[in-house]
Amino acid sequence: MTQPPTAPVVPATPLGTGPAADSARSTRTATRTGSSSSSSSSNNTGTGTALSVAHGPAAEPTRVLARFEDWARRTPKAPAVIDDLGIWTYQDLDAAAALAAKDLADRVRPGDLVGVCLDRSTALVVTAVALARLGAVYLPLGTRPGERRIRAVTEDLDVACLIGDPGVLPEDYRGGEHVPLLLPTEGVNAPAAAVAAFADSVRGTRRAPEGALYAVLTSGSTGRPKAVAVAEPSLSVALDWYRAETGLAPGDRQSLLIGVAFDPHLLELWAALTSGAALVPAPDDTRWDSQVLTDWWRDTALTHAVAATPTVEPLLDRPWPQGLKLRHLVVGGDRMRIRPGADVTATVHNAYGPAEATVLTTAHAMRATDPEAGDQVPPPIGTALPGVTLVVTDAEGHPVARGEDGELRVGGHCLALGYLDAELTARRFTPPPPNLAMPAVDRLYRTGDRVRMNPDGSLDFLGRLDDQVKISGVRIEPAEVEAAFEQDPRVRTAVVTVLRDSSGHGRLVAHVRTADGAEPAPAELLDAVRSWLPEQAVPTAVRIVDGFPLDANGKVDRPALAAQDQDQDQAPASGALRAAGTDDLADAATTATERLVLTTVRDLLGRSGIGLGDNFTDAGGTSIVVARLLAVVEGETGVRLRAPEVLRSTDLRVLAALIDGRRTPRPEGA
């Protein structure tokens, strides 16, 4: 390894010839010449009204691993991974992956599922390449996926082993057989050690379908996560679009920012490795603090980045940071509510796509020169990407006319192979309507998303059709969260609702009816479900109830329950001043900084009853809300805090004192 350079390194020999280059050029040509085809409709209603059917430009699948290996041969000294401790070249990465594959070869067969419990790091990149070489199926789980969640996964799926730091692996795997792996243990988010861990427990029976490159977990309504498998050709089409659209090439630097448990990190990882560009793993605090994020973009000279919409939106409410080399920013995971302003120097791509359709299926590019730049209206989620077919249907599966609302169904090269559950695959991946002439499309995935197709073929996202919700950009089944609570013997029944603030940001609230004689504290119940659920699915509050309101059909009246939540949120919380009937804002002893913090937190959470004695997290604060709070605090006081400082503060009064302690004293007489 060598020390990181002060500027991107351009390899001496670019990949300009050969099959991979020819494929990239043909994809770019198809994108340019076929861009208008996204608005084409092959059918109409017979009255001249176009149906909501659109096809992206033509695309041909290419290779993923072979493109990386081509770069490793042609430009071995080019940087492949850069972090604060040094550089791993393509030659380094290729050799490390070969060693890891050799160590695993005796125990891991082609088609085996391998759970990866690593963070965004060089070790993760080496593992992804090694598993692709073995023909094994990469199943990203992250460093702390939850003991019970892992147990549920390994009981259902035939997982050959887990790869990660022995200290963070689940108990069943800590005590089993370990095969040491020579993965990098230095740099950003690096593991202290790395092993392939084999458990003695009985393995599940569901294997990945033939040809799978990776599988990812998505939320399951049964309370157990479900896995969806994706083949190399499907990922290659998304990567070819990304390279053609953003110009990612040797000398560029691509973020590795998205959480490992979520499939967009695969777009980041393989986009760089198939372009001859360098990956830059992100420290953890960049994901939650927009100020830290932009500083990281600047300090690392990033040219290309992928980020969650809720992380980026606070940046659009203030002047765009100067001195960035960032040219392209792909955002997604949640509805974007405003367009970037005319001062934003990067092209921002508002992207949409479920894991079942290989990361992304539509995108809408926004530039500073657009007439709509800075408009306070949501942009569309874009038009069909190459190889993608979009159909908006009614409840019976028939296409609706353009301009009408309906369910989005997606087909084409982007589709996953299916779930590791044949019955579920048959329900969600269905044949196209028989009256539609789509000879190249044999399946459509029902997204469950409500959209509207515009005359130009672009889509407006309108929300979900089912009970599934999005929290901090992650799809969550309330039923999965409820099932996690009901695993606890102290809980008889749980119902989860979503509270949204005035800007549409949501948080989960769990309503729990306890078993006879049980008196668990809400905090105890929350601690118990953390081992079942990913971070975004853990509710911000638990409310113990005697029963639930019912509707006319005898079902739980969730809207009524949510209305009760809104009423309770406006009521005073736990602080001593409010217990005495006094609002902290009216108290003469409250300082200016305390008033700023309290007012801001109340506004962000939509809870007028919060007081200075309340803890930010207990009041419903999340890592996403922290980013918005930090922006306000810095704008009003000039004090720049870090997200962990807010999350660790015992109450809002302590947080205000921390801000006052960081203020620069004003000169006497100023």
Please summarize what this structure is.
It is built from 19 helices and 28 strands. The chain is an alpha+beta fold.
Topology:
Elements: H1 18-33, E1 53-55, H2 65-74, E2 79-83, E3 86-89, H3 90-104, E4 113-117, H4 122-134, E5 137-140, H5 147-156, E6 159-164, H6 171-174, E7 177-180, E8 195-198, E9 212-218, E10 226-231, H7 232-246, E11 253-256, H8 264-273, E12 278-281, H9 290-299, E13 304-308, H10 309-312, E14 328-332, E15 347-352, E16 362-366, E17 383-384, E18 388-393, E19 405-412, E20 418-419, H11 422-428, E21 429-430, E22 444-453, E23 459-464, E24 469-471, E25 474-476, H12 478-486, E26 491-500, E27 506-514, H13 522-529, E28 541-544, H14 558-570, H15 576-579, H16 592-605, H17 623-637, H18 643-648, H19 652-662
Protein model, in words:
With 670 residues, the protein is of the alpha+beta class. The chain is 29% helix and 21% strand. The chain is built from 19 helices and 28 strands. Strands 1, 18, 19, 21, 22 and 23 form a 6-stranded antiparallel beta sheet that branches. Helix 1 (18-33) crosses helix 7 (232-246). The chain is globular, with a radius of gyration of 25 Å. Residues 2-42 and 572-581 have low confidence and may be disordered.
- Major pleated sheet: 6 strands, antiparallel
Structural class: alpha+beta
Low-confidence stretches: 2-42, 572-581
Using the alpha-carbon principal axes, give the shape: globular
* Helix content percent band: 25-40%
The span between the termini is 52 Å
Query: Quick one: how many beta strands?
Result: 28
Q: Which radius of gyration do the C-alpha atoms yield?
A: 25 Å
**How much strand?**
15-25%
Count of helical stretches = 19
Return the average pLDDT rounded to an integer.
Answer: 84
